[in-house]
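Q: I'm building a small set of examples for a reading group on sequence design. Run inverse folding on the following structure and report the sequence directly after it, with nothing in between.
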C-alpha cells in the first residue's frame, strides 16, 4: 500500500477520534488505538516468523465476509447465496474476527508488499484472507472496518474486487459510515447516497451502485387497499430503544388514543427481540389492541393493515414498499432520519394531532398510497427486485463487464 495512503489513514483515524469523542478523550482515544495496533502488529510479526508458513487454501469465486459468527448463523444472505449458486459461482462464508482470535488461530500472512509496522496486523490479516480463498470478489457487510483498505489492496493486486454490501440504509449519522475504501458500494437507494455525500469525514473512494436490497422479497409486493380499514399497525422498537423516553412517551400517547378510539383496531408488530412488556396489560384489558403473533411475518401484518405508525423503525421501508401510508409519531424533537415529514407531512406529537392525521389519511387514502410509493422509491431502488438486480451486478463485475451504472463517492479528509 502506498505511503501516502497510510498517512491519509492516520489523518482519518485522528479525525474520527475527534468526531466520536469530545475534550481530552478525543486525543487519548487515537493514541490508545495506535498503541493497540502496535501491540497487535508485534504479535503478528512473532506469529509470522515462528508459525508454519503453510496455509490451507480454498479457491472460490465469491467470499462473503460477514459481520460476525452470529450474523452467519442468522443466514440473512440465504437468498443471495442461492441465486449466485444457481449461476454456478463457488462461495465461501467467513466472519470478521477481532485481534485475539485472529492471532490465536494464526489468521495472518506476511503481506506481499511493504507496509508500516503499525499496520502490519491489518495487512497480514487481509493477506491471509485473500491468500486462503483467492476470491474474484469479496462481499463485505461490516461497516467502518480499518481492515477494508488492506483487503481492497490485497484483492486489487490480484485483479479482484471488494464490494461493500449495505444491509440497511445509510441515512443515520453513524461514524462507521465514514469508511468508504471499496471498489463498489452497493446502497439501498438515493437517500443513502445523498446522506453519505453530506458527511464531513470520508476515507477512501468508491463507485456507488444503487442496487436496492437483496433481503426483500416479493411478499411485500402487496395490492393497495382502496380505503382505510380502521386497522393501524405500530412498528415496535428494539429492546434497548423501548426503554428510552422516546419509546415510552410515544407508546403512551398511542395507547391513550387507542383506548379512546375503540372503533379502530391497533396491532403492535414487535421487534423480534422485544419483550413488549409495555403492551401486555393493555392487550388484556382492551379488545381493540392486539400483539401480532411472532410467527407472523411483517408482510402478513402489513397485508391486513390500512395505516402504519412508526416512531423509529427501519421497517418503514417495507411498509412503504407494501403501499401502506405511514404516520410519523414522535413527541420529541429527535431527528427524522428517513425524511418521513418530507413525504407524509408534519409528525404527530399528541392524541389530537394523531386523530387529525388519521382523518386526513382516511379522506385522501389513495393520495397517501402514492406518497408511500414515492417514499419507497427514494429509499429503496428496484423495490422487490433488489435480489435479482444485486445478483446481476455481482455477475457483471466478476465477468468484467462495463455495464455497471455507478456514481462516485470521494474522500473527504
Amino acid at each position: 500500500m502506498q505511503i501516502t495512503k497510510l498517512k491519509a489513514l492516520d489523518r482519518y483515524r485522528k479525525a474520527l477520534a475527534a468526531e466520536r469523542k469530545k475534550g481530552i478523550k478525543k486525543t487519548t482515544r487515537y493514541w490508545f488505538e495506535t498503541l493497540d495496533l502496535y501491540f497487535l502488529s508485534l504479535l503478528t510479526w512473532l506469529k509470522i516468523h515462528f508459525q508454519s508458513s503453510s496455509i490451507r487454501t480454498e479457491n472460490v469465486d465469491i467470499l462473503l465476509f460477514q459481520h460476525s459468527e452470529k450474523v452467519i448463523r442468522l443466514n440473512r444472505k440465504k437468498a443471495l447465496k442461492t441465486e449466485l449458486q444457481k449461476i454456478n459461482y463457488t462461495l465461501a462464508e467467513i466472519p470478521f474476527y477481532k485481534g485475539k482470535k485472529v492471532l490465536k488461530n494464526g489468521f495472518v500472512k506476511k503481506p506481499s508488499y511493504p507496509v508500516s509496522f503499525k499496520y502490519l496486523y491489518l495487512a497480514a490479516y487481509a493477506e491471509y484472507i485473500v491468500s486462503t480463498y483467492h476470491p474474484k470478489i469479496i462481499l463485505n457487510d461490516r461497516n467502518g472496518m480499518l481492515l477494508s483498505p488492506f483487503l481492497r489492496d490485497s484483492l486489487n493486486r490480484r485483479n479482484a474486487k471488494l464490494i461493500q454490501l449495505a444491509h440497511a440504509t445509510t441515512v443515520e449519522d453513524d461514524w462507521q459510515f465514514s469508511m468508504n475504501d471499496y471498489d463498489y458500494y452497493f446502497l439501498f437507494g438515493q437517500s443513502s447516497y445523498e446522506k453519505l455525500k453530506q458527511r464531513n469525514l470520508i476515507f477512501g473512494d468508491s463507485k456507488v451502485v444503487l442496487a436496492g436490497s437483496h433481503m426483500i422479497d416479493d411478499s411485500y409486493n402487496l395490492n393497495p387497499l382502496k380505503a382505510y380499514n380502521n386497522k393501524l399497525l405500530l412498528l415496535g422498537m428494539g429492546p434497548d430503544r423501548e426503554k428510552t423516553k422516546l419509546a415510552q412517551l410515544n407508546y403512551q400517547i398511542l395507547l391513550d388514543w387507542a383506548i379512546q378510539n375503540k372503533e379502530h383496531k391497533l396491532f403492535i408488530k414487535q421487534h423480534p427481540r422485544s419483550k413488549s412488556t409495555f403492551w401486555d396489560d393493555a392487550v388484556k384489558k382492551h379488545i381493540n389492541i392486539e400483539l401480532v403473533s411472532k410467527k407472523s411475518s411483517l408482510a402478513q401484518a402489513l397485508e391486513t393493515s390500512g395505516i402504519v405508525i412508526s416512531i423509529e423503525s427501519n421497517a418503514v421501508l417495507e411498509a412503504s414498499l407494501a403501499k401502506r401510508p405511514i404516520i410519523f409519531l414522535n413527541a420529541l424533537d429527535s431527528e427524522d432520519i428517513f425524511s418521513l415529514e418530507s413525504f407524509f407531512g408534519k409528525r404527530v406529537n399528541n392524541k389530537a394531532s394523531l386523530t387529525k392525521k388519521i382523518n386526513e389519511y382516511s379522506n385522501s387514502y389513495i393520495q397517501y398510497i402514492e406518497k408511500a410509493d414515492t417514499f419507497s422509491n427514494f429509499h429503496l431502488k428496484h423495490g422487490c427486485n433488489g435480489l435479482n438486480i444485486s445478483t446481476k451486478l455481482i455477475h457483471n463485475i466478476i465477468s468484467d463487464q462495463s455495464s455497471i451504472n455507478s456514481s462516485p463517492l470521494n474522500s473527504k479528509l
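The chain has 16 helices and twelve strands.
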